[in-house]
């Protein structure tokens, strides 16, 4: 609960201008986010004739032959973090394995990671903030809406985030306000304002947002008084050295627009099959002939002739649609059987068909994996400061991902046996096969103890004496 009360705008004009700058989320970026999200949801501004609209949108849902959604979901579904391994791991044991797993599970990240990955692919950018839950004595990992976060990177070091801001609407007592948090490596500042200028642009008026103890600035330092780092983490899809990521839908949308046009052309064509265009000649004067089911056209004129125009074949349109989908699949590096359905290939043909998709996912595992590793490193730093865990200064953690390839159990086991013969560790092999090495070790230990206890009971009963 914040303290009510009026304060003068803090920090003078320079500070107010800086806060206005931090509160500017960038209208072009927000417009792009809205466009990509609309196309993903199927709201694609498709132009329909009035008659077509009456039966294609009778549900009230906008019509679209939506392939933007699978273009994202096919990739997102294969991005699954299954765990983390620290540089302290040895002999299939990782002293930080249990706390890392606890932090992940307590924050329901098995589900939240899917939201982060999907939003990052749709908009190009996704954000996570890490804080500390004093009540649960655990790090708190939260997904943040992309349009509410703005990161600021160093010009000298483009990959180093200098600070970040979060802007959202809230209430203070009965007043509608805008909240603004600024996250620095060593502190978090909290601000608010009551009004915006009429043109919607920033107009200063920022006040300190006080908690019940009168604090508005919160230190973000370790016990050794070292900055913990900006607790905002940016998931970017193909930033290519820039500040912002690129939406996976950007190259897909032109194909989607063309597809909607072709599908509507096909719809118009088939809609006329039951009511073809007819013609009549040799009739003079005013005569009305209605093309209604059951009507028979007749005329007394001796020269009267009747006929109908041949309907255009659908094959050419169907071929155009199929060709467009094939080009879309190649452009987005998606196999056709995942984009349009149908019977998938098998064996080496399947591996070849999915090679482009697997390559896309593996690239994302690197870039998204770096962000998840930074998230969990911040979680460990906070836990270490609270005495929950102990970590060395040179600690490194690595995200473990599920295999993005369509798997054949028999083939995977054969490959695993070959790798084992080459000296690959059991923990690595189990991870590649989709198993948790620590959980498997615990299960094996439990099974061995049960077998030993059962054997001891048999010996004690004398059943083996003979």
Pick out the low-confidence regions.
none
DSSP helical segment count: 14
The secondary-structure element order is: HHHHEHHEEEEEEEEEHEEHHHHEHHH
What is the 3D shape?
flat
The pLDDT mean sits at 87
Oligomer: single chain
Would you report the number of β strands? 13
Radius of gyration: 31 Å
What does the largest sheet look like? 6 strands, antiparallel
**Secondary-structure class:** alpha+beta
What percent strand?
Answer: 15-25%
Helicity level, as a percent range?
40-55%
Distance between the termini: 77 Å
Brief account:
This protein is an alpha+beta fold and 466 residues long. The chain has 14 helices and 13 strands.
Structural topology:
Blueprint: H1 12-23, H2 27-41, H3 50-56, H4 68-76, E1 81-86, H5 97-106, H6 109-123, E2 125-133, E3 138-144, E4 149-153, E5 161-172, E6 175-183, E7 187-193, E8 207-208, E9 217-219, E10 232-236, H7 253-271, E11 278-281, E12 305-308, H8 315-332, H9 336-340, H10 347-353, H11 355-385, E13 397-401, H12 409-421, H13 426-432, H14 437-461
Antiparallel strand pairs: 1-13, 2-3, 2-10, 4-5, 5-6, 6-7, 7-8, 7-9, 11-12
Helix pairs in contact: 7-8
Describe this entry's structure for a reader.
The chain is built from 14 helices and 13 strands. The model has no long low-confidence stretch (mean pLDDT 87). It has a domain of 234 residues. It is α+β, with helices and mostly antiparallel strands and 466 residues long. The strands form four sheets. Strands 4, 5, 6, 7, 8 and 9 form a six-stranded antiparallel β-sheet that branches. Helix content is 41%, strand content 17%.
């Amino acid at each position: 609960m914040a303290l009510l009360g009026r304060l003068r705008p803090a920090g003078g004009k320079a500070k107010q201008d800086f806060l206005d700058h931090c509160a500017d989320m960038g209208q072009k970026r927000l417009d792009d986010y809205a466009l990509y999200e609309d196309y993903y949801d199927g709201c694609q501004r498709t132009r329909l004739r009035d008659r077509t609209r009456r039966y294609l949108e009778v549900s009230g849902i906008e019509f679209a032959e939506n392939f933007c959604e699978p273009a994202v979901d096919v990739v997102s579904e294969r991005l699954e973090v299954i765990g983390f391994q620290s540089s302290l791991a040895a002999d299939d044991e990782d002293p930080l394995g249990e706390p890392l797993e606890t932090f992940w599970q307590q924050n329901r990240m098995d589900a939240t990671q899917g939201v982060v990955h999907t939003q990052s692919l749709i908009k190009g950018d996704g954000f996570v903030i890490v804080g500390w839950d004093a009540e649960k004595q655990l790090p708190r990992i939260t997904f943040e809406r992309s349009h509410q976060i703005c990161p600021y990177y160093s010009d000298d070091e483009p990959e180093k985030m200098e600070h970040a801001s979060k802007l959202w609407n809230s209430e203070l007592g009965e007043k509608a306000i805008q909240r603004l948090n600024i996250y620095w490596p060593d502190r978090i500042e909290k601000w608010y304002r009551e009004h915006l200028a009429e043109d919607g642009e920033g107009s200063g008026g920022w006040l300190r947002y006080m908690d019940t103890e009168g604090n508005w600035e919160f230190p973000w330092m370790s016990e050794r008084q070292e900055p913990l780092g900006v607790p905002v983490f940016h998931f970017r899809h193909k930033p290519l050295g820039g500040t912002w990521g690129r939406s996976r839908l950007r190259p897909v949308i032109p194909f989607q627009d063309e597809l909607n046009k072709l599908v509507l052309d096909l719809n118009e064509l088939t809609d006329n099959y039951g009511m073809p265009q007819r013609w009549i000649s040799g009739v003079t004067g005013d005569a009305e002939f209605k093309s209604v089911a059951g009507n028979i056209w007749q005329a007394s004129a001796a020269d009267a002739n009747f006929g109908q125009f041949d309907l255009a074949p659908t094959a050419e349109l169907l071929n155009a649609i199929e060709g467009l989908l094939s080009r879309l699949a190649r452009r987005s590096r998606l196999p056709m059987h995942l984009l349009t359905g149908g019977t998938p290939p098998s064996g080496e043909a399947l591996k070849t068909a999915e090679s482009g998709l697997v390559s896309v996912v593996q690239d994302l595992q690197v870039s998204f994996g770096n962000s998840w590793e930074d998230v969990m490193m911040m979680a460990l730093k906070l836990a270490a400061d609270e005495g929950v865990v102990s970590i060395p200064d040179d600690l490194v953690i690595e995200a473990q991902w599920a295999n993005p390839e369509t798997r054949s159990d028999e083939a995977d086991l054969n490959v695993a046996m070959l790798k084992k013969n080459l000296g690959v560790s059991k923990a690595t092999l189990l991870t590649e096969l989709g198993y948790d090495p620590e959980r498997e070790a615990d299960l094996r230990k439990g099974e061995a103890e049960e077998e030993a206890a059962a054997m001891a009971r048999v010996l004690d009963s004398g059943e083996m004496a003979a």
